[in-house]
Amino acid sequence: MIGLTHYLVLTGILFSIGLVGVMRRTNLLMLFFSTEILLNAVNIGFVAVSKFYGDLSGQMFAFFIIAVAASEVAVGLGLLILWYKRNGSVDLNSLQMMRG
Amino acid sequence: MYEVIAFYLFAALTIAMFTIVVMSKNALYAMSALAGGMIFISGFFFLLDAEFLGVVQIVVYSGAIMALYAFGMMFFDTTRDVSEKMRSKKIAYTLFVLSAALIVIILCAPLASSSVQANFPTVEHVGNVQMIGLVLFTKYLIPFELAAIMLLVAMIAGIVLASKKMDEHLNIEDEELGNVKESR
Amino acid sequence: MENYLYTALFAPLASSLFVALFAARPKMLFTGIVASLLIAVSMICSFVLLVDVNTYGPLHVTMMDWIAAGNLEIPFGFVVDEVSVIMMVTVTLVSTIVHIYSIGYMDHDKSFNRFFSYLSAFVFSMMILVMSDNFVGLFIGWEGVGLCSWLLIGFWYHKHSASWAANEAFIMNRIADLGMLMGLFLIYWNVGSFQYDDVFAAAPELPVGIVVTIGIFLFIGAMGKSAQFPLHTWLADAMEGPTPVSALIHAATMVTAGVYLVIRAGELYSLIPHVGFAIASLGAFVAVFAASMALVNNDLKRIIAYSTLSQLGYMFVAAGLGAYWIALFHLMTHAFFKSLLFLGAGNVMHAMHDELNIKKMGGLYGSMKATAILMSVASVALAGIYPFAGFFSKDKILEVAFNEGAYGLWLALFIGAGLTAFYSFRLVMLVFFGEKEHVKYGIHPHDAQPFVIYALLPLGLLAIVAGFFEPTFEAFVTRLVSEYHIHIPHATEYLLIAATLGIALSGIGFAVYKYKRGGFSKSLEEKACYRLLSNQYYIPKLYERCIMQPFTVLSKFVWQKIDMKVVDFTVDIIAKCIYSSGQEARKIQSGNLSDMLRWMIVGMLVLLAFAIIYSAMM
Questions:
Q1: pLDDT value at C21 more than 80
Q2: B20 CB burial (10 A radius; 0-12, 13-18, 19+)
Q3: Chains contacting B with at least 3 CB pairs below 8 Å?
Q4: 8 Å CB contact of B99 and C611
Q5: Would you say residue C351 has pLDDT above 70?
Q6: Cα(C117)–Cα(C17) distance, integer angstroms
Q7: What number is the average pLDDT over the span A8-19?
Q8: Is the peptide bond before C75 cis (omega within 30 degrees of 0)?
Q9: Does any domain span residue B61?
Q10: Which of C328, C303, C306 is nearest to C318 (CA)?
């Protein structure tokens, strides 16, 4: 029988894949994809907890996370396009103005 | 039995899709894999009796967000392979292993407090969508409205940012940048 | 009557604070006038209190609770009894005259206002010292006068010698004050109170050893303030201050605080007569020791300073032998004629354009008649010639020494009287009579402004007549302090008086005779004993060699080895660690988003680890 633990382990694995993406990718667009993975992994966790504890709060959280993800993509893509128009590249290594 | 098979199938597919997203050199492949992964995740939601969220997942993620990415990618040169020089691979993979181990340990460990009181308990014989609607428009009304405003703001911001000087060519921008650099 | 008490006490404070408002401004005449008026008000109140105490007895007020911590309870209380009222009258009288005198003396000084502020602050501290009804209040006043003394000696702080002298005085006093503090701690430890009444009531029950220790420690404090041997060197150097300061602080009031302390704690010292005798012996030694240094010195003010030292020795002889009222009496008369002498010296200095070497003066009588007469009067009083004030008080002290059977002390004081007479008239002769040496230096002396001279007249009058108050004074003061009876047959007494008068007169006569004929030959100055005296027995040199130089070496060692190599080094190491860690950590801030994300993940890992540890602990 599939229990909460299964879902949580899956969440963990997906989250870690997202982390690998975050660390590995230097293309900004790909970085956005990785963050989407992170968010989705967490969503699965929330919904699973919601199901197994009989509490709707988890689903509510997942819902709001989706809303936040949507706005993030909108703004993020806008910025990305602006940056691409300026520099012709969305490589992270071209973004080093904050060097201390 | 059917549930077990579904879970493992979806789990395998999701992991595979997301691995492609993370590892693929081609941006188009990555995006397509991401869209697939999103849909498979909505499968989990259906499995977990969260039909509403499952639908939202398909509509918002696979429909809206992926479409947005697709439009966004039209600006970039996607046919070319993404050349990524990952620096210090060892560190990255050590971190990955460590974090995966930790997260799994934490999530597999018996939950610290087993006596969780449900804030908004699910009610028997009431549809998931109806329950979510009830909670969303009673307890979470203000966050819901705020989320709506946030989405509106994000939309406007996206339009403004992306459409800025849409009619001008890249080269002019380059010259401007050069001027700015010189004047510094 | 309380109002008079508070007025007497706080008028100087008001004066000081008011004048302090203008301290940084250029000279304003009214500051001096206001200060003088307020001090005069204080003086009048003191006189009213004198009459009141004489009629109704002592006055004791408690203004407020001051320190209340645990068992320690010290009220801000003041007592005006026979002893303190005498001190108050003396202090305020001399202060008033010195204030008025200073208006003339400091006329051309840039820091005219500041001077009056300090001077009034000094009077306030002195009033606290003498009026307090407990040892802590006395100590506060004690430190207050020490501070004002430091400020005033170093008044011309741009002069290196002045600031050096100020520091020397302050440090010497600190050393002695440590002794006094130890005494105060012992008192509290054993009695549990600082009130004079409680302490003196409890003293007879205490073990003798404790009382002896307390007595010695308190006397160490008195030694510092009254510049007794071996802490005497600061007083002569303190003459770097303006002359009115020397007159007020280093002759009439502050330096007598030590004597006042011994008189005040008389009930304590009467329990331990052997300590009293030691005090008296030290006093007698200082009386001769200081007088001998005064014999050869050529500095106008230093001669008077040594004379002050010598007279303080006389007071300590009387106080140590238990004749407290005589000590107080000599304190009072000495305040009058010594401040007169100093103020006269100030006039001479002004006339001579701050020239202090008496060998360069001479024949000033012609141009400064009033000052000359006043200083002569003061010198005669100092020498102790009937009917001047010094005669009565000094003679009494000699009688006390004789009465106690301390013939050694008597002899010392007797010789001291002769020396005193000689050096004071050596000074008068060299300054006012004889050859007009100053003409060579092109100085045209003129006497001080008339109001300055008039201000000095009361002191001159008192220097002449104060001695005749002796019976009244004795009756008044002995109501509080123990009486002292002299059991010498009348014939012997007259013989003693005649002898003392004789040696004083012969000292004067010798001085007049010698210096009328041009003084001693030059060859005397080459003699060893002359050099010994003029170098102050080499004691300042000794201090420099044996204390200051080793201390400097030690300080340098501690500075270079311990402070620089250990303390600073440690601090530097800490700073360097932080600095280099900052340099290293700076690389984290590479500006690369990937790196930042990795660091974010590291942070997340750390937090997760914490979460695991935390839940394991639960």
A1: yes
A2: middle
A3: A, C
A4: no
A5: yes
A6: 7
A7: 87
A8: no
A9: yes
A10: C328
Look up residue A61 and give its two tokens: 């959280």
pLDDT bucket at C572, cuts 50 / 70 / 90 = very high
Q: What fold, for A4-90?
A: Helix Hairpins (1.10.287)
Asked whether residue B119 is domain-assigned, the answer is no
Does the model's ipTM exceed the 0.90 cut? no
pLDDT, average across residues B131-136? 86
B 135-164 residues with CB below 8 A of A?
135-136, 140, 143, 147, 150-151, 153-155, 157-162, 164
Amino acid C571: pLDDT: 93
| Alpha helices (H) along B24-83 | 27-47, 51-56, 66-73
What residues of chain B lie within 8 A of the CB of C618, using their CB?
112
pTM equals 0.68
Residue of A16, A96, A97 to mutate when probing chain C, most C C-beta within 10 A:
A96
Question: Which residues in chain A touch residue B170, judged by CB atoms under 8 angstroms apart?
Answer: 85, 88
* B29-68 pLDDT, tens digit each: 888 999 999 999 999 999 888 888 899 999 988 888 888 8
Q: Report yes or no on B148 lying in a domain.
A: yes
Say if the Cβ atoms of B165 and A16 lie within 8 Å.
Answer: no
Interval C434-443 mean pLDDT: 74
The CATH number linked to B27 is 1.20.120.1200
Measured between beta carbons, the chain C residues lying within 8 angstroms of B108 are none
Give the burial string for C583-613 (b: 16+ CB within 10 Å, else e): eeeeeeeeebbbbebbeebeeebeebeeeee
Other CB atoms within a 10 A radius of the CB of residue C556 amount to 10
Q: Would you call B154 and A16 a contact, using CB atoms and an 8 Å cutoff?
A: no
Total domain count for chain B? 2
> CB C601 to CB B99 under 8 A?
yes
Smallest CA–CA distance from C609 into chain B, residue = B102
Q: Which residues from chain A sit within 8 angstroms of residue C598, using beta carbons?
A: 23
- Give pLDDT, residue C204: 87
C609 at interface of B, judged by CB pairs closer than 8 A:
yes
Smallest Cβ–Cβ distance between C597 and the set A22, A98, A100 belongs to: A22
In this predicted structure, the answer to whether residue C77 has a pLDDT above a threshold of 50 is yes
Show the tokens assigned to C366. 């012609």
Give burial (CB, 10 Å; 0-12/13-18/19+) of C118: buried
> Which residue on chain B is closest to C592 by alpha carbon?
B87
Range of the domain at B73: 1-81
